[in-house]
Design goal:
About 35% of the residues lie in helices and about 35% in strands. By secondary structure, the protein is an alpha+beta fold. The protein has one domain: Nuclear Transport Factor 2, Chain: A (Roll), CATH 3.10.450.
């Protein structure tokens, strides 16, 4: 039991430390994404990518197009937009 608990605990602590490193929150990421690409926000996810910790903000434009804007969670810089 102890052999199984340690790796799970270690993985949880690593994940927790990555989430804690984000300098901007979800709401700020949404605001940044909407400035870059206006639209109604459908979802926001914080994920680990090749660029580091990012927010993926999915928006719906007034024309009906769904777009995903990627915002760096540490700097707030838009990494990619449609």
């Amino acid at each position: 039991m102890k052999k199984l608990l340690f790796p799970a605990l270690l993985a949880f602590l690593i994940l927790l430390s990555e989430v804690a490193q984000a300098d901007i929150g979800k709401q700020e990421a949404v605001s940044i994404a909407q400035k870059a690409y206006p639209g109604r926000v459908l979802s926001v996810k914080q994920v680990q990518s090749n660029q580091g910790l990012v927010y993926q903000v999915k928006t719906l434009s007034t024309g009906g197009d769904v777009k995903i804007v990627v915002v760096d969670a540490n700097t707030g810089k838009v990494i990619s937009k449609p």
